[in-house]
Specification:
It contains 20 helices and no strands. With 427 residues, it is mainly alpha-helical. Among the domains are: 82 residues, Serine Threonine Protein Phosphatase 5, Tetratricopeptide repeat (Alpha Horseshoe); 74 residues, Serine Threonine Protein Phosphatase 5, Tetratricopeptide repeat.
Length: 427
């Protein structure tokens, strides 16, 4: 199913392999396909219908050639956007396989696959699952004579379960596919990195992050074997593994991988490339989590400098980094360095959102909190008053955020305050 293969292309491929005893049927398929390419679906339909009539007259009802032409006609309807008609036609093809030709063939498995694809596009989830299972059974009943198609059918069903957030059902299928591929063709292991990644993601989605780790390690190993040490696929695999380590709070391992990825990307793309800047930003976050504040701040300052040059000083991504830098400075106790960054965010919000937007109030609160930490109560109080005014107008006097703000303001007036950011329950 992933990606959906156009049935008409399959028919052409099968025809080229000699699926039809009558070259004139192949000619109808080719003609239909040519009209599809030009967007003339009416002529494509006429050609496919003529081919279907020819197949029935030459080979009789319920022949294999009839299923080929039904597949071609279904493909025309699919390409023209008439999914309902395509489903009806492919269901006829499947019934011929089931009632006359047998289902333990590659062609029957492909017919089930194509029908499942249409069911899925039409939002018919139950029929999709049932038909994918039938496709898998078709290839299993062939006794392993076509391992490649059997593995594909296994992956298709796993893909469906993943799309439906049923990763627990996808996991055994993906494990089976990996085992079969490794046994069939050990030399093709380099191309299996994506399969290990898919299985790892399913484990993570199922809540078992630790089981995903060795799979992501394996994916990275295979990508390195296949492409060398600095290929983009290798770098992406390093980043994927770092995310897994971070989820397990293994920040040092995550940081080491991101640092390696950053060095490789910087060498290949240059420091100012947007992807490289993103990696440096992630490295800053991990350094912060490791408690390396000075290094984190240094990295984030460089990110901001490069982003301002590439995106402009008022880009939302730049402002987000500025706020993050302000928080790092506060974490370090350098409130005076954080203050102008919060003030810059406030100016940005007022320009973009207007003076009375609730998000503007949040910035007033951040600045007030910073000023309180510096002992500047007299400067913090009017900012709190303005924040209360904005959020009361937006949320109402009885909203929990407004009540919390008033409580903080009363404590501030008594000079014993710890101001909480008012972010919960925003509307």
């Amino acid at each position: 199913m992933r990606p959906i293969i156009a049935a008409i292309a399959i028919c052409l491929t099968i025809s080229a392999m000699g699926c039809s005893k009558d070259s004139s049927v192949e000619e109808f398929i080719a003609e239909a396909f040519a009209h599809v390419k030009t967007g003339d679906f009416a002529k494509a339909e006429d050609a496919a219908l003529a081919g279907l009539a020819k197949a029935r007259s030459s080979f009789g009802e319920n022949s294999y050639e009839e299923t080929v032409m039904l597949g071609s006609l279904a493909s025309v309807y699919t390409e023209s956007g008439d999914l309902n008609e395509a489903v009806i036609i492919l269901e006829q093809s499947v019934k011929i396989h089931e009632g006359h030709l047998g289902t333990n063939t590659r062609e029957a498995g492909q017919a089930y696959h194509d029908l499942a694809s249409l069911y899925y596009d039409a939002g018919r989830v139950v029929e999709t699952e049932d038909t994918l299972k039938k496709a898998l059974t078709s290839y299993e009943e062939m006794g392993g004579s076509d391992v490649t198609m059997l593995v594909t059918a296994i992956k298709d069903l796993a893909w469906f379960y993943k799309r439906e957030s049923r990763d627990g059902e996808a996991i055994p299928l993906l494990e089976r596919a990996i085992k079969m591929q490794a046994e069939k063709s050990p030399e093709a292991r380099g191309g299996m990195a994506g399969d290990y990644f898919d299985l790892a993601v399913s484990y993570e989605n199922a809540g078992d992050v630790k089981k995903a780790t060795p799979l992501l390690v394996k994916a990275l190993e295979l990508e390195r074997e296949r492409f060398g040490p600095d290929h983009p696929s290798v770098i992406q695999a390093m980043m994927d593994l770092s995310i897994n380590y971070e989820a397990q709070l293994e920040f040092q391992k995550a940081r080491d991988l991101v640092e390696q990825a950053y060095a490789l990307e910087k060498e290949k793309r240059g420091e100012e490339d947007g992807k490289v800047v993103d990696t440096l930003r992630r490295l800053s976050v991990l350094e912060d989590k490791l408690g390396h504040l000075n290094v984190a701040i240094e990295h984030l300052n460089r990110v901001i400098e490069l982003s301002e040059k590439r995106l402009g000083e008022n880009h939302p991504a730049v402002i987000a980094d500025i706020v993050e830098l302000a928080l790092m400075y506060e974490e370090k106790g350098e409130f005076n360095n954080a203050l102008p960054l919060f003030e810059r965010e406030l100016e940005y919000k007022i320009r973009k959102l207007g003076m009375n937007h609730p998000d503007v109030a949040v910035s007033y609160i951040d600045i007030a909190r910073n000023l309180v930490s510096q002992g500047k109560m007299d400067k913090a109080k009017p900012l709190m008053e303005r924040a209360i005014q904005i959020r009361t107008a937006a949320l109402g006097a009885d909203h929990p955020d407004v009540k919390n703000l008033r409580r903080d303001y009363e404590q501030l007036s008594a000079m014993r305050v710890v101001i909480r950011p008012a972010v919960s329950g925003e509307e």
